[in-house]
Amino acid sequence: MRKVAYYKGCLASLSAKELDISTRALSPKVGLELLELERVTCCGAGDIHEAEPDYYLHLNARILAYAEDTECDTLMTVCNVCTLNLRQANHQLKGDAALLERVNDNLAKVGVPAYTGNVEVMHFLWLVAAGEGYELLQAAAHKGLKGLKIAPFYGCQILRPSKLLGFEDPDRPSSLERIIEACGGEAIDYPAKVKCCGFPIIQAREETALGELIQPIEQAKEAGADAIVTPCPLCHLSLDAWQTKLKKQTGKDFQMPILHLSQLIGVAAGLSDSELKFKRHVVSVDPMLEKLSV
Amino acid sequence: MDAKHDVLVIGAGCAGMRAAIEAHDAGADVAIVSKLHPTRSHSGAAEGGINAALGNSAEDSPESHAFDTVKGSDYLGDQDAIEIFTREAPADIYQLEHWGAVFSRADDGKLAQRPFGAAGSPRTVFAADITGHVLIQVLYEQLVKRDIKVYEEFFAWQLVEHEGRCQGVIAWDLLHGGLKALGGKTVLLATGGVGRLYRATTNAYACTGDGMSMALRAGLPLKDIEFMQFHPTTMYPSGILITEGCRGEGGILRNSEGERFMERYAPTAKDLASRDVVSRSEQTEIDEGRGVNGSVVLDLTHLGAEKILTRLPGSRELAMVYAGVDPIHEPIPVRPGAHYHMGGVETDSDGLTEMTGLYAAGEVACVSVHGANRLGGNSLMETITFGRRSGRAAAEWALANTTVTVPESATRDAERELKDLLGRTKGERPWQIRDQLGQTMLQNFGVFRREEQMAEQIEIIDELRERYPTVVVEDKGEVFNSDLTQAIELGYLLDVAACMLQAGIARKESRGAHSRPHDYPTRDDENFLKHSISRWQDGGPELTYKEVRMTRWTPEERKY
Amino acid sequence: MQVALKIWRYDAATGDKALREYEVDAPEEATLLDCLDLVKDRQDGSLAYRKSCRMMICGSCGMRMDGGAVLACKVRMYDIANAGHVPVISAMGNLPVIKDLVVDMDPFWTKFKAMKPYLQPGYSQPEDGKEHLISQERMNVIHKESLCINCGCCVSECNAMESDPEFLGPQALAKGMRFVGDPRDAAKTERLDEYSSEHGIWECTRCYFCNERCPKGVDPRDAIAKLGAEAMKEGIDDDMGAKHADWFVHSAKTTGWLRETELVPKTQGIVSSIKEMKFAMGLMKHGKVPIPFPPHVAEGVKESRALYEIVKEQDRQGALGIVQGERALSRIEHALEADPDHAAASRIAPEEAGGSAGGAEA
């Protein structure tokens, strides 16, 4: 079992609890032992990075410091935004000794251990898309997706900026496709799979956001997808919870189920209903599950 | 006439924009005609810096700057113009800074100044290694602030002379198509250089000697047209520039034996000797078998990553993309490439040409500030100082005169020529002539010039000029017909080349960038301390000479 | 080497659009631009595209290769040709196409000019008429923004602008930050006010396409974040986007975790939230609207509260908080070469994955 520090972030704690629950249930099956970080806070998302960037750096340094404190070399995230935020902070601290010193001084003042740069931040997606994690996933997905058509939606901040994330080609990524195929599903290709769901501006500029949101949903629907899978709970929130708003705007009722990555793999690995918590979704996942049970 | 203005500036590089800004501030209605959007102009590719005797880095004075410039010019520069230049330069730099130019700073917060070729004191103000880019940006910002009209992507084709004055230009609207007659009480050429004559050049595709040729065809003289500067550090095969600033920051040129060969050729200044000296040294090393695949190498590896990443990041990226080397770890192969034209349209110190109402500033002009060889950093300064002076002069003249007329005949003649050019369906495509011109100029009229090769080149140019009237423009459309404009540009190149060769073969000495080590290896002040003057007469170049204006300095032996 | 290209030809006058394939014999060092020149010179003189410097500084040759904007002069064709890949070349996005690869840059320059992109120095000039004395460190605040060559690659891929063509966009806003961060500019507050308008800072969707596509390392998204930081520091925070961001800060320093439920009324205001009741009910049914009481407080939240007070005192407020990280981030590639262990997570190469080569269309 590979021990990793686990940072679940804000959404997985509350409105997207199903992400945390399914991740915990799935992790042992793919060789991951999760040590959840207790003393952490919100990573700040793009918002604190924009509003109070120095505070953003310190909040993330604190998360990294507590991760390092567990003696794990990997901090696992389950959200695109957390991943970018933590990796960006990590790069800044590791690449500038003077900055690291200043931040550690401040952390010390509030009783947080110093961060020495020995943690690598990895999204759960990356841990299971290649290497040993992938092999274990292949073995675990014995129930399979029976040829279900799944449209991968990456979202922005797991791919770009690629020099901070760097796991795969940002223009032609393939990690989700590999996982879908390993789970026995058919991966759907469509242009908007690497574009933005609009979540960051879904409140402040709703119309613009919906103009973005409709693209992956419409394209996936047209390509015959049974469901969309995404590694980001923020994308999940807009794709799932805001899907009804699209109906209002366009008159189209897409009824496209949106799955968290851990849920998709979880279905193939035979997780129970109480571990998947699909009833927490706004758009019903039933049509997809029915197809599977046939 | 489709429009009229007080001042029409042709070209939107540093000189053109600075002139337009000044003309505007002098109260004139000014418009710029440019075949590129202003920020695309080649001034933006300048890298190393801009010279002025600010004295921020060490003791300096305009006199010292002037002497370095005079010596650098191999005593062909007009000293009265040079004195004006170095005296007014500092105020021009401060003006740019007040407008917001993003220059690099010294530890005390002043403008940083780096050492540059043949400079007695470090006086090159810079912005990392993208100085030209920074200047283009600040000038464009000031242009936008004044809401100065730009006829963008308008290709200036023919000067209009009427009643003894230049009164406008016939231009081709590249974006939408169609000939336009633009009237200007004064016209100011700021069209840059002619590096595209050479296969290996630092210059952009746009640098085709447009203004030089237009002036030539309008009967005006080109001065010192045989003097093309070969920049010592350009990359193979295109000639893309690696700034002199690399040597200013401590970079060293080496031959195949790893030797710092400049110690032999210029014991004092070494790698920061004058550009013509360095280019000749490199070429000699290469010719004598101490090159590496036809290049020497520029070694920055001892500067350390930090210095390179802070002071020379642009150069690093260029080397990585175009030469496939990271200068932090490996030396960059470099060789001489055509870079800057010292000669050009003859003007006085206010940018006025022989023709009333016609001005010129920047690389297209020859005041002459640079004589037979230009110092690095002086060209950018020239664009600003003389751009300003000529902009004001053009504005003042225009404001004191009321009429402007572009006769119908000018438009009709241009239309007929255009119809001819576009109507051709049989002939050759321009690229063949262009490529042949580029290769042969590099071979026969490069760093080292020989009598036989120059004679051969004259014949080659004659033959190319004979073939030119048969070129076929495939694109017969109106919208964005760059096939047409490129064909016209080729014509400009051929005219300037003819003048260059005539003046070059006639100059029986070696001075500055004109080097004839095999037959005339030394400078001949007795017979050739004079400017060559080339005019277009009866379909070909005609050569005369003119005195050099000297004030303080008498020619001495030029050693570095 | 043989290089094959597919180019989208377009004639605005007739509306004819066609994907044509060309093959050229190019030297090994050829760039995409060199190949276009070969096509134009020797096969089809009507191919229209902009070019000038061919050394990544003039910004003329922005165009899309396989759906993503690049500078044609920056793309070396060797690896592409060797892999047998035939790239699809098309005009940049988000701008009207005039002909083939030539776009109408008017909307681009109009937005640029809307930023009042020139120094507004106010009344104070250096007394001796010489330069303002400014440290290099202070000028570095706008170093990245000053690198912009106005090529349009960022604008081409901007997701927010695709949805709302009136969004000012990454290039204009980055230029705005160039002035907001310039110590010689006296119009900071007016600028921030202007840039915080409907189609300004807060309409950026944070897709990071601009950072990804910029060929000069400007990182426009970060410039926009700097503008947001400066706006909020100046108290220009009326916009919903600002209020949204503010609530994240407030959450971090009170409960540690994001106070999700209150986010809507705090961002949109009570009136708007009431209008959203029906929508909110739909979410509530599925537990998507967590009850804010008792608040979900993070363990050790005292630390994040205290940290807030500490950083508030220090001199990295506003944009400086982002600028401080730039040095390290600009050295990432360099560090990768020097120390492979410092590398990003292991990369999946496309060939290894065997995944689809889809993505954005031409």
What are its keywords?
heterotrimer; B: 560 residues; alpha/beta; FAD/NAD(P)-binding domain; Flavocytochrome C3, Chain A, domain 1; 2 domains; seven-stranded mixed beta sheet; five-stranded mixed beta sheet; 16 helices; globular; C: 362 residues; alpha+beta; Ubiquitin-like (UB roll); Fumarate Reductase Iron-sulfur Protein, Chain B, domain 2; 3 domains; two-stranded antiparallel ribbon; 18 helices; disordered C terminus
Textual characterization of the structure:
The complex is a heterotrimer of chains A (294), B (560) and C (362). Chain A is α/β, with parallel strands linked by helices and 294 residues long. Helices cover 51% and strands 11% of the residues of chain A. Chain A folds into 2 domains: 2-124, Glutathione S-transferase Yfyf (Class Pi), Chain A, domain 2, CATH 1.20.1050; 129-293, Rossmann fold (3-Layer(aba) Sandwich). Chain A has helices at residues 9-13, 17-26, 45-51, 53-69, 80-95, 97-109, 124-129, 131-140, 162-165, 175-182, 206-222, 233-241, 243-250, 261-268, 273-276, 286-293; strands spanning 2-7, 32-36, 74-77, 120-123, 149-152, 186-187, 227-230, 258-260. In chain A, the strands form 2 sheets. Chain A has a 4-stranded parallel beta sheet with strand order 2-1-3-4. By secondary structure, chain B is an alpha/beta fold. In chain B, helix 1 packs parallel to helix 4, helix 13 packs parallel to helix 15 (482-506) and helix 14 (451-467) packs antiparallel against helix 15 (482-506). Chain B has helices at 14-25, 62-72, 79-98, 131-145, 210-217, 245-248, 262-265, 275-287, 305-311, 313-323, 378-399, 408-423, 430-444, 451-467, 482-506, 525-528, and strands at residues 3-10, 30-34, 50-51, 113-114, 124-125, 149-152, 154-162, 165-173, 179-189, 222-223, 228-234, 252-254, 296-299, 332-341, 344-346, 358-360, 365-366, 530-537, 540-547. The model of chain B has no long low-confidence stretch (mean pLDDT 96). In chain B, strands 1, 2, 6, 7, 8, 9 and 16 form a 7-stranded mixed beta sheet that branches. Chain B is built from 16 helices and 19 strands. In chain C, 53% of the residues are buried. Chain C has helices at 32-42, 78-82, 106-114, 136-139, 153-157, 159-163, 170-180, 188-195, 209-213, 220-233, 240-254, 260-275, 277-284, 301-313, 320-323, 326-330, 332-338, 350-353; strands at residues 2-11, 16-25, 62-65, 68-71, 88-90, 97-99, 102-103. Chain C starts with a strand and ends in a 9-residue tail after the last helix. Chain C has a 5-stranded mixed beta sheet with strand order 2-1-5-3-4. In chain C, strands 6-7 form a two-stranded antiparallel sheet. Chain C contains 18 helices and 7 strands. Chain C has 362 residues and is of the alpha+beta class. Classes of the chains: A alpha/beta (294), B alpha/beta (560), C alpha+beta (362).
